Amino acid sequence: MKGPLKIKIEGARQEALEVARNRLMVGVFLFGAAFALLALRTLDLGLFQPVTEPRRSVTSLKALVPVRADIVDRNGVVLATNLETQSLYADPKDILEPQEAAKILVQILPELSDAEIYEKLNSGRRFVWIKRHLTPKQMWQVNALGLPGLKFQREEKRIYPNGSLAAHSLGYVDVDGKGIAGIEHFFNDRLNDPLSATQPLMLSIDVRVQHALTDELLHSIKKFSAKGAAGVVMDVRTGEVLALASLPDFNPNRPSSASGNKAFNRATKGVYELGSIFKTFTIAQALDANVVSLSDGYDATDPIRISKFTIRDDHPKKRFLKIPEIYAYSSNIGAAKMAMDIGPESQKNFMASLGFLRPATVELTEVGYPLFPERWGDISTMTISYGHGLAISPLQAASGIGAMVNGGNLFPATMMAQSPDSLPIGKRIISEGTSDKVRQLMRLAVRLGTGRNADAPGYRVGGKTGTAEKAMAGGYNEKSLISSFAGVFPMDNPRYVILVSIDEPKGLKETFNYATAGWVAAPVVRNVVTRIAPLMGVSPEMEERSEFLQAAYQIDPE
Amino acid sequence: MIKSLKVIGVLTVIAAGGGLFQLKYTIEATDRELRQLQTEYISNQKAIRVLEAEWAYLNSPAYLQDLSVRYLGLKPSNSDQVMSDLEKLPWRKDLSRLIIPQIDFVVPSPRQKPYFKYITPITDYPFEPLGSPAAPIEVISAEGGSK
């Protein structure tokens, strides 16, 4: 018989062994069960349990959400963004030799003074800022010193890559990232809201148009030694502001440069008597209310004397003038007589409907209150008809001119890019027919009238000059002028209104010592149109002469 | 039978244990990789923000204008240099033989018109009747410059 040899042990010995073996088996079984459990659990873990990631939520990704949302222009060009910087602070208790440390730090941070740092390091407090927003190089240098007690704090700094471009629209922030002026101030809560921080705020500004406007205004200021200038480029169909300039300006990267005169937004905060540009509104209202027609006219032979005032023409023709002539030759007498036919009450209502009697409703904090006479009498009516006595901001004037040429609808000025799907609905001011006539008149004033210097060939510019004497204590100062021009192009299908205002230009030999709008402001508009029209997709074309012929028919060029 | 079962059992246990450790290490490695990728992602995102700001700075119109004035002889374009329609190109000859592409953008043209040297001089140029054989022309220069 093959197989394992079987031994049988008999008797009590066998019984004891049997018991021991049985007991041993219990242990073996228990251990076996335990190991089986482990094996099963291992298999279970390896094969069936889903691999979960219980630890460490991705908190560090939060660092990516900027503290403050970016601001971009209508094409997505960054106007303001936040960049990470390091700020240097000190725990003076840990500083071993304040005197020595201050000496070394000044070498790295030359804009600080030795004594100032020493005072901070010796103050005995536990936390003092040495300098906010170090450059990476400075940070590296300070770090390389290895001085105990100097520490860095990660912070964010607002950067404006375009420098002073559109500074007055953007405004600036303080060292803690709080908006102080402009869009930064108006939309401070929206920009700081963590929920919308990744979503940039899109403005209606176009940096290219903004630069063209600023550049031309700067050139004009330099050429005519002017004190300042303001300019607005606006889309007449939506009220979107494509460019808003106020000079002199500041660099929002250095908030300290925004002081006094430089921080003042002439385009929205400043209110000016814009002069003859207002004749556009006077004639538009008269035509719309059927007070006059294009073929009517007024006698402008003699100046008007009313109480102490005398109303004269700057370009006197001393004869009967038809309505287009009153506009093209900018006759104060004609406009004043027309306004009297309209009546004070009606004129005031018209100005109110254009929004000229309250601040502009634009998304900026810096909006100026218009100045107008409390008692709107006959004299006020006459002077306001040619732009004296009612002071509004250039931005408001641009909106108003837009409403005169776009078919008669007023769109409130806006700094926000409008979606092309939901264009704003304007408020009707004048009829479409009247708007057509105003367009002809404005084109006429550029072709044959005072605004000839604004004619950019091919782009069908229309517009109106406005030269106003500055109001001084006790009357007007003949020497200090505000020369403005309201231009619109292309006149056959108006797209953009450009309003520029130049403060106290001085006449030059080449302008025959004139500093009037036709010599100063009109060329700025021409240059701006020539620069921006190709950008905005307005192509130069031969003019349909019928565009302004109806009005031109009435004119006697002599 | 029992013995082979035991062997299988032991092998399974060893394999399961080994597998578990292998799994653990793989997971740890993946986790490290994930963390590294996240760090990289964050620093890349930060770099993108910086680069976007720099891009905006380098493309700011004032800066470009400065460079252009300094290094290029370009001047602002005039309206007579912009064409809205290829049909309006001057000196265009037999139009019927040309396929004119439909364009809806403006085409810049040089400030100074190209100077052509005619090998066979044409006296009644540019009012040559359409359809006559085009004279061979040779472009000598098309230099820019002021008007």
Q: What global shape of chain B is seen?
A: elongated
User: Into how many domains do the coordinates of chain A divide?
Assistant: 2
The secondary-structure class of chain B comes to: mainly alpha
* Total strands of chain A: 16
Provide the residue-averaged pLDDT of chain A: 86
> Per CATH, what is the topology of the largest domain in chain A?
Beta-lactamase
Largest interface: A-B, 46 and 40 residues
Mean pLDDT of chain B: 71
Structural account:
The complex is a heterodimer of chains A (558) and B (147). By secondary structure, chain A is an alpha+beta fold. Chain A folds into 2 domains: 64-201, Penicillin-binding protein 2a (Domain 2), CATH 3.90.1310.10; 210-246 and 262-482 and 499-552, Beta-lactamase. Chain A has helices at 11-48, 98-108, 114-121, 136-145, 167-170, 182-186, 188-192, 207-223, 278-288, 323-328, 332-342, 344-353, 378-385, 394-405, 432-447, 517-532, 546-552, and strands at residues 71-72, 78-90, 128-134, 150-159, 201-202, 228-235, 241-247, 297-299, 304-306, 309-311, 320-322, 409-410, 427-428, 462-472, 475-489, 496-503. In chain A, the strands form 5 sheets. In chain A, strands 1, 2, 3, 4 and 5 form a 5-stranded mixed beta sheet that branches. Chain A has a 5-stranded antiparallel beta sheet with strand order 7-6-16-15-14, sandwiched between helices. A two-stranded antiparallel ribbon of chain A has the order 8-11. In chain A, helix 8 runs antiparallel to helix 16 (517-532) and helix 9 crosses helix 15. The mean pLDDT of chain A is 86. Chain B has a domain at 2-74. Chain B contains 2 helices and 4 strands, in the order H-H-E-E-E-E. In chain B, the strands form 2 sheets. A two-stranded antiparallel sheet of chain B has the order 1-2. In chain B, strands 3-4 form a two-stranded antiparallel sheet. Mean pLDDT of chain B is 71; it is low at 114-147. Chain A binds chain B through residues 35, 38-39, 42-43, 45-46, 51, 53, 58, 60-61, 63-64, 66, 77-79, 81-84, 159, 161-163, 165, 207-208, 210-212, 215, 456-459, 527, 530-531, 533-534, 537, 539-541, and chain B through 9, 12-13, 16-17, 19-20, 23, 27, 31, 38-39, 41-42, 45-46, 49-50, 52-57, 59-62, 65, 76-80, 82-84, 105-106, 108.
